[in-house]
User: Fold this.
Amino acid sequence: MSTDYQQARVAFGISLREIRMSSALTGTQLASALGWPHSKIYKCEGGKQTMTEADLRLWVDACGQPDKFAGMLSRLRGFESQIRSWRRQLASGHSPVQDGWNVEVGRSTVIHAWEESVVAGMLQTADYARHVFMRYGSFYGTARDADEAVRIRVKRQEWIYESGHTLRVIMWEAALRALVCPPSVLDAQLDRLSSVVGMNTVELGIIPFSASLKLPTANGFWIFDERLAVTEDWHAEVWLDDAENIRLYGRVWKTLQESAVYGADAHNVINAARRTLSSR
Assistant:
């Protein structure tokens, strides 16, 4: 979570407290009126929990200040533009999320990506992508729209065949071996990766298990030109558009790249992963 985001959330909490106190309500009284645990009031006011739009409506109404809703909602939506929870994003399935990514890809000229546990989305085969969406859909209990999400993700790959575009991807060897799909699907996916090594518009680096790492591997992230960085965690995607954080992720990418192999060496790592599939 970015420092700027946390500071904004703390400031939002202060405003919530001011609304409550100007209504002469104690935290206990407001919690009772809303049917919430006391801890939720103090977490929201202390910037430790981001409330939903419905929570905000209940808050201002209970405090007798519904006129404050519009202004506070605008600030709340500002948080959502940066911290995009999976619970909210996936309420309508994976397809809308993929549509949003396609917009950002279409606006970009150079994209840097790091993936430590799955094949980068813009290099996925349709079958591999389908299994990834199915895994997440099952885990989060979201709408089962894997086929449509796959169609949108595959369409995004047209970008790498257009002149003037460059996709710079680094993946950890673990992404080549993780059985998030049947072995036959993974084998076809690895064949696809081999085919992009040496493409004019794609620079594919693999960090072997045997490589010395200057940083521990961590969550995957994408950098779109120098205007946006997106990283993922289990609770949310984090979209960062401030220059300082974009530079930070750029430094992380360059540091990880120092451990990556390319060309024939990348082929060797991919082929070694394929050979292990024959024994599974």
Notes: The mean pLDDT is 92.
